[in-house]
Amino acid sequence: MSALFAQWIAPARRRAFADTLALALPPLSALAIIGWRCGGPMIAIWLTTVPLAVTFIIARRRAARFDRRWLIRSLDTRYPELEDSSALLFADDAPLSPLESLQRRRIAARLDRGAPQELIPAWSTRPILILGLLAVALIAAALLWPRPGEGPPALAPSREGLPARPGIPRLVAQNLRIIPPAYTGLPVRDSAALDARAPQGARLEWTLRFDPQAAAPRLLMLGGQPLALRQDGANWIASRTLDAAFLYRVDPAAGRGPTPPLHRVDAIADAPPQVKALTDSLTLVTPGQRNWSPAFAAIDDYGVAANARLRVTLAIGEGENVTFSEREIPVGGSGPPRNRRFAPRLDFASFGFAAGGDMVVQLIVRDNRSPSPQAVRGPSLILRWPSPKQPESSGLTGMVNTTLPAYFRSQRQIIIDIEKLLKQKRGLAPDRYLARSAAIGGDQQILRGRYSQFLGGENEGAPALPTADGEAHGDDDGHDHGGPPVAAPSVFGEKEDVLAEFGHPHDESPASSLDPETRAILKQAVDEMWQSERELRTGHPDAALPYAYRALRFIKAVQQATRIFLSRVGPELPPIDASRRMTGKRDGLASRLLPVAPVASADGPAADAWRALGDGPQAIRGPIALDALDRWVRANAARLPDPLALSGAIDAVRRDPACATCRVKLRALLWTAMERPAGRLARRRPADAVGMRYLDAIGGAP
Amino acid sequence: MTPERIVALILCLAVLVASLRLLLWHRAAGAQASLLRLALLLLLQPLAAALLHTALFPPTTTAGTSSLRVATAGTSRLAAAAGGAPLILLPQAPAIGGGEAVPDLATALRRHPGVTSLTVLGNGLGPRDIDAARGLTVQYDPPPLSTGILHLAPPPTVAPGARFTVGAILTGLPTATVELIDPAGRVTDSAAPDRDGHVLLAGTARAAGAITFTLRVRQDRHIVEQADVPVRVEDSARPRLLILAGAPGAEVKYLRRWAIDAGYDVTTQMSAGGGVALGDAPVAITPASLRRFDAAIVDDRSWTGARGALLAAVRGGMGLVLRAGGPIDGATRSQWQALGFGLTGPAGVAPLALPKADAEPVARTRYGIGSTEAPIDIATPEDYLPEISRLAMTPGGSGAVPLLRDAGGATLAAWRALGRGRIALFTGIDSYALTLTGRRDLHGDWWSAMLDSVARPAAGIRVITNSGWTGERMTLCGLSSEGRVDGRVRILPVAGCGGYWPDRAGWHELNGKDGVRAFYIQPANALPVMRAARDRQAMALLPATAASRAATMLPDRTGAAWPWWLAWLAVSAFLWWLERSRTGRRAAADQSAR
Q1: What is the ipTM of this complex?
Q2: Helix, strand, or coil here: A433?
Q3: Among A237, B126, B258, B406, which is least packed by CB within 10 angstroms?
Q4: Which of the following CATH numbers is that of domain A276-384: 1.10.1330, 2.40.170, 2.30.30, 2.60.40?
């Protein structure tokens, strides 16, 4: 029954769906094109996604309107031979009366004569047509709309502020087009002013108009070659690549008219990329680790190249037998160009990285500047695979500082574990409870071993166990030991092994330097631990708890006593025996001159000009010779905070020596361009005759 | 007997004789005599005589007022309109009208002789008028000072590259911020005033020349007042410095480097023990050989050997800086205490509290551009602080002047005079660590401050830091002979001081036999509060004596004679007419005619 219904309803539904899509397609494509033109493909995609989803929802709604009632109604209207009984065909599966069944059979035969396609609603042609036409118009407008930087530039009126003189050409309109290098991805931009800031390497195109028409206008670069303008219809054009910031002026009349003001074009240099490590600078290999993924983030103002190189330095070996190897591997980055992420996966096996080795990686990224991309090396990250052998403790101080607090923590941890186990006792199976208890007992044993090391290892050995249940228990028996203690034994235990390997160090024991009282307390602590361990191993953690607490108390006491006893002391050198000084061989020892090369420093032209521009005694009111200063500024451009501004100010003063504000401005800039000599001596004034007599009288004449 | 009395006697006699003649004539006239005429004539004759006398010797004027009100700068219209004595408007007074405008107070007093008391309104009389008011009773009720810069103390002569300090006192601005702006317009220091309004700001000099910094007072983001801070940077002759050290070390090395860079002619002597000396060509340490040095820096180990010669040289004018190379022994301590440095405190070494480095933008304004030999190395407040220590004892004492203090307030250096020279004691140890951690400026400031204080004095340009304003008289003192300002204006000193009326703001130089003195003249409208406060102080210092001058001056003043002459003429004419006329004689004439 539903098959029949589906067969009859599907074409109509499909048509309704398609019709809705056909209606929505023209506006959507217009929207996409406008978005793409205005903001690029990403914007276009964003602009279309949401409306497209809405369109689909509407289309489904519209299709859903073609339901059973509509079908029955349409069939009855369209096919009179169905005798208004088509409802019977699509009736529910409810049992029909015999009459109904009969009628249904009759109609079903008649229905086959019709086709479902006949019920399809017509396309909404006119709206589609109108919307399509509208969309075409919109798309055409969007495509043909002039974008900044395309086509002939619109000239802006000039603001040179020069008086008009008959017969002398004057700049009346201007435009400066800035075409950034392609790799920056920046759009072409038109600047109405002749001063601009542009990325380094950008192409600058001037379009200028003069009134009256100029004969041979030029762009005069301050301290550079002039740039001739080329006539292009009514306008004059010139272009140049921006390598460094420069100052220039538009000279329309070959120096005949008044000197026009200076304009400044600043070059924004491409910043080298910055690499930041997202991983810690020192990582330790965790047991079972097979590879390492150090992560770096690289940012750049225009974009980081997607492929970078990773320099991997391996230091393999131990002690004096360390070999280094270095190699570079290509790595690919992910993320947007301006903020890429590099997380290469380094397989230990492929590098031959083994325990006791260090792996140092450094990311070398390039930006996409062309030509000559800038390469930057990131910070080095170190992966250390600790040697199975622990480095020997160099002195007692280190041990006091690091290991004793760890012991302390550890005994407390055992208590915490026991209490946790007692809490969970009810929910645990007896064998599991025993196993957990024995595991804690194992931890306690390790800890006891560590302390007995201080006592010369005399308390070695496990307590006698009534059963052998706990013997098979180990770290990897498949159950959880609950948090920190899992990691702790791996550190402590190794030290234990080291001791065991070297036998029974009675006298070399660090504890041999302990005073007898501390030793006694420590022994008590170890005894308590032994008791605690025995109870744990036999599956009585509740009985072990008091012993563990007592052990903790003793350890605390030991710790405090030990801390005082083992306080850090510097090396005590023997006193100098003055009688033995200078009694050795003194051949070749004699007085020597130690010359110091003085740094030649002079005020320089900046200070001269500074004084001349001021109001002090060396001030010059009239024109000032600024050539030396100009040369100095050019030669020392790298040291100066803003050499271009200084050059501009020099030019302004030279052009108009009477301009007071120009002089003030130059003087202010010169202040920032002067060296500060090391503080000279300011002499105090000598006393006069009376003062001399007074000083002689109170101080005693020589 | 004065002529006046003689004349009076003669006139009295004449009147007596004339009256006698009239009476006789009247008796002889008989019937013709008219009593009225006789009475008139008898009355008019002494009158004419009296008038003649007064015409000849006009009486002293007692007319006019004895009190004036003088409006000075900052006079309020309300105070001027209060009425009372006549109002005098000095040129500084605001345009309040309703008074007599005079060019100065002396003119007003000439116009109003007999004035014995003045009521001064406004900020007080300026230097031009204050002398004219001496000897008069002056009533002055100062108005409250407006807020602003009460006093500005620019630095005296500054050496090139040196750090200098500008002091200012603010009034009525407890929450203001004071900024020192360098000539490039950058803020080089800023501070908030203390409770009394005092504030100290520091800047750094560059090459020699005249600089104008700007002191700006801000409150709640708007500028309350700003004033020019004139700074005169002057180089001096190359000083000679002797560095004596008991052992070679980093401190000596960096000290030597700094001193050579700072333009000293340095001779270094480092003893390496056993008679081996390192450094420059050896010099004998005798009073005679030390005479050619301007200053010496000596450590505690070399001090013991050279003590006598050094002290003799200091008495002759040399400067001596004593420094400790480490904890000092008891003998050195007692020797240094004997010099006047009360070395109190425990023996041994204490850590030195370094001041926090300036914020980066401020620090950048303090440094110039770097050079290839010494690139700029700016320490930031976050940077690692070098470990520098000092002697735990502090060189205080009543005879020593503290010179340097560390951030914790402990005295690091102090100086005291000995004969013509000075001795400074520096307790810092290993100050060279500053140069290695980006605090080269602090190292230089410390040693500069010590050597500036003690080095042998020398004549040079002197800066007079008293403020002067254009269009206002200022007094230049300490002159022993005639001098010239800017080569144009002669200054003739009276009792060592001469007056000068500057007409141009900016730097001026006074050249004379005593050397060159430079002074800065502020524009007329600069620092109004400071100027008002100065005038007010001068007013307060006026002696409160009574009108002594008026009493002695008045008799000398004679009034105008012409009214008396006129009166005498009129009376005489009337007399003449009366004598010649026939009034009162008509009856007799008629009788005789008949």
Answers
A1: 0.76
A2: helix
A3: A237
A4: 2.60.40
